[in-house]
Amino acid sequence: MSETQLRSLPGAKFSCQGCGKCCTGFSFGPVEPKVIQGLIDQDMASKWPPAQDGPWYHEHPGPDGTPVFSLAHRDGHCVFLREDKLCAIHAELGEPAKPWFCREYPVRIVQDAKGLSATIRADCGGFSTSYATGQDLDQQLQAALSLPRPVSYPRFDPEHVEVLPGMAISPENWLQLESPLMAKVQDGGAGQGIATLRDVLAKVTERSLPAASPAAAAAVFATTIEQLRPQVEAKLAALLPAKPAPRTEQDPDFYRHVMLSDLLAKRFAAVGSLPAGLGLTLLEVQLAEALGGPAELAQVQRLIQIPENWQAIKAAKPYLTQLFLAWPARWPEQGA
Questions:
Q1: Same-domain pairing of 103 and 177
Q2: Per-residue pLDDT tens digits for 149-159
Q3: Quick check: 43 pLDDT over 70?
């Protein structure tokens, strides 16, 4: 992918499933001023009656005093979401009339010292379907890269990367380790991702780690849930199982893909360490399984991103770390 300077997962796929969940629950901004003006000039409000029921956009003062725009919500979703879960702007005026973030989603692009990496966000409602049946992601990235983005790509530039408790390496060393580590996870077989990661990290850091076990993992999982329950808002609290117990994964290949996506997107950096970030991935997977399977992962991630819940997740870093360290490659019912 030298022509785009983007790295993506081998064989990654995506196709929009038209579920409309990307138009629900998010904050719809910042919208480029020229997009707002274009919608005004083309009289979008007269083409879409719900936009006439109160203001269809909001204007806020930005940090430097310049106005920042966002699209309005109606009943928890974008004012321009139609009943058929498609976009009224897209239908009436075409894709170029939409804000940049609508056109970019669910592609996540992160900048680091090696260039750019691109993944599909697992909070996309169609992610669990399109990861296996969609179009090749590589063929879509030039379009994402060419969008007139008004804000910079998130940048991975921490002072260090904590790869094991008490063991940190430089960001440059992490980027050297990233590709071979992910390749080993990819080659390790479904259900082997966590074990492979621990083995490689132990070898690279010359650390001996405690043996993972189902009993230890189950105990840490239950403790993590109980620590989170009083700290999160009501919607996420309602999803936490009353009797926390790990479940056998319905689709190990899907969850391995999720783990690899999280690694390439450096999602762990926001939690404070690699082990805690991978522990969060495990927690999200287990909550999705408790709700019914891979398709529920999008809902789980959306709720976790609510600021109150995210603060609770970051405070649970020690428990998430232990979850990663204790998690077995397979549970007994899988034939381990």
A1: no
A2: 888 999 999 99
A3: yes
